[in-house]
Input
Amino acid sequence: MTDEFHRIRRLPPYVFAEVNAAKARARAQGEDIIDLGMGNPDSATPPHIVAKLVEAVQDPRTHRYSTSKGIPGLRRALAGYYQRRFNVTLDPEHEVIATLGSKEGLANLAAAITSPGDTILVPNPSYPIHQFGFIIAGAAVRSIPATPDEEMLRALDRAVRHSVPKPTALIVNFPSNPTAYLADLDFYREIVAFARQHEIWILSDLAYAEIYFGDRVPPSILEVPGARDIAVEFTSLSKTYSMPGWRMGFAAGNRRLITALARMKSYLDYGAFTPIQVAAAAALNGPQDCVADMRALYRERRDVLIRGLTAAGWDVPSPDGSMFAWAPIPPRFAHLGSLEFSKQLLARARVAVAPGIGFGEHGDGHVRIALVENTHRLRQALRNIRVFLQADNAGPSEPKLVETVR
Output
């Protein structure tokens, strides 16, 4: 027998596990670690959403199996959101499906539409499930630039001309995790025209649609005429309504892709717990001032973080969207790579960040900093980082830390 199963052999060691193990050990030793690594919202879910959950869970009829594609009221609520926010009309019965978070939906759709050896185009760096959902399904992934510009478009053209077999699907994600890049509707028009010409499916991840800080409001790819011929889009309540643990997401768009995902899910799950779906519908249909408050909160944290890093001598671009800063490793530490630099920040500044290598090889020159602590804790982290950067510590981590994270 081989040491590992076939699909497991295709998955590299999870980079974030090293930092997580070191973080856990440091906390077990009484260290106060400020965790800016995982994109895990720290704010409470708005009270009216929680109240709807409590109301629904008290009805015994909701305790039975639900439906894998989502209750009708929830699918109608998402269609209503798309109509209000993007002026896109969706058929709740055939163009919308509820998922257990967008991550589950992406992975199961990848399994539904992929044949072994298919070529899939994925930005690098990108959220791990974007490539590994397809790798698990047996595909080969071809990396393309993550920037929504001519560089990506040229890479798409090269991929079509030189990939064997020809690419069957493309992933896009704006506002992006981890890079925080935003795309505009003109870029989506070019992507859609290209994909329609070459008969390539598009899977758009729009999980951060409502986290933006300026005049550039993130669009939906479904706003482009003809997009639904080849595109499906994933959204999530996790960040918009501070509901990450509720695991509530959606896919919307092309009927054939939605049908494929629904068929796959019908074999795998009975959908989210019905009271969660009822509460999710209340979130989408109810007052939206909580979304504006959430956006203002992340904007304030972004400003505190970027100003503090600049003052500490770390030049980091200010993100226009998402809940992350994509931070180039300071030149003095660049030779370390993102994993070693992250270990040093953890050991010597007591701040946890996500190493960029975890998002793809082209992310290794960066770390991702999540805006998931209040401003008091952010300022504390910034003081620690400033001391760390001003010290003479650009060499490898001490042997003791390496021992700790093995």
User: Anything to note?
Assistant: The radius of gyration is 21 Å. The first strand starts at residue 34 and ends at 35. The chain has two domains: 6-44+290-405, 47-285. The mean pLDDT is 93.
